[in-house]
Amino acid sequence: MTRVSDTASETADGTASDAARDRGRDRDTTNAPRAASAASGGPGGARGGGAEGGTAGAGVDGAANAAAGAAAGAAAARSGGPAGARAGALVGAGGGEGDPGAARGGVPGGAVPLRTHGLPGWLDPVARVVETVRPSQLSRFLPPQDGAGRQSAVLVLFGEGEQGPELLLMERAGTLRSHAGQPSFPGGALDPEDGDPQGDGPLRAALREAEEETGLDPSGVQLFGVLPKLYIPVSGFVVTPVLGWWREPSPVGVVDPNETARVFTVPVADLTDPANRATAVHPGGYRGPAFLVESALVWGFTAGIIDRLLHFAGWERPWDRDKQVPLDWRS
Fold it and tell me: What pLDDT shows up at residue 166?
């Protein structure tokens, strides 16, 4: 398998710089999002439980689900959210409430629907990000207009653990030649059997790669959205971040120790804690967001995606951007 994380850190250069420029334009007041998140059971508050009312995919049969998905896609397109429009179309094709595949999130080889119905309330802000965020708000490196680039996907999987909402990450083996020991999302390049890169191919690839790398049971994952595709100029990867809810948790761990050192989860509350945030600085000139969590330094592409999700979901808390973590040339 070809891992996106082998060269993924180059993408975050644009993510970080765009983040700095955008903060002054699109930031809500700091306290309001935190209060709203806590009120709805978000990270740092009580655990959420209610399903999002009136969301796409809330129909009781396939026809109602398709109509809701089409409406969500149209609304997202009007608001400038191409990822949301694409997600709405996939939701509409994903089947209804009575579809076992849709209920369990789909498995590689079959239809892989996107569904927001039934998500815990604390994920509502993330689902809304999918419908509204623009590619330029995530990174300045966007896919070539001529369609060039190797299609790939990563799984951004939210679960709920003993400490509340959490994210699934993995750490690369320390013996690898590039980015040894660097945490990342599960993911990799699309295989031909994954299907259409412009359809549900990235969804299937994200689930397949997560299963291959962590042992995750994809049937317990409900995919609920995709972020805009991003580009890694150095490697030519076009990366689709696929968002999932770990509805039915399964055991995970290292599948191949030659590639992966460990598989772990990080509480979202730790990611939003200002004490765990810093700016990673590479000798080559790169600067970007970083998280010091679970005895790991999360930086590069993975940290860039997390940073943007926290920001646009309203979960971000003020943190000291002057706090720096130096990287070495081997990073």
Answer: 98
For 15-43, letters b (16+ CB in 10 Å) and e give bbebbeebeeeeeeeeeebbebbeebbbb
Residue 72 CB contacts under 8 Å (≥ 6 apart), including other chains: 55, 56, 57, 84, 87, 88, 91, 116, 131
Sign of the dihedral through C-alpha 7, 244, 67, 51: negative
Q: What is the pLDDT of residues 170-226, one digit of tens each?
A: 998 887 766 678 899 999 999 999 999 999 999 999 999 999 999 999 999 999 999
The single residue listed with the structure tokens 């003993």 is: 162
- Report d(CA 331, CA 309) in Å as an integer: 24
Could you count the other beta carbons within 10 Å of the beta carbon of residue 317? 15
What is the rounded distance in angstroms from the CA atom of residue 250 to the CA atom of residue 227? 25
Whether the pLDDT of residue 134 is over 90: the answer is yes
pLDDT digits (tens, 9 = 90+) for 12-39: 444 444 444 443 333 333 333 333 334 3
Token pair 């709203």: residue: 36
User: Rounded mean pLDDT of the chain?
Assistant: 76
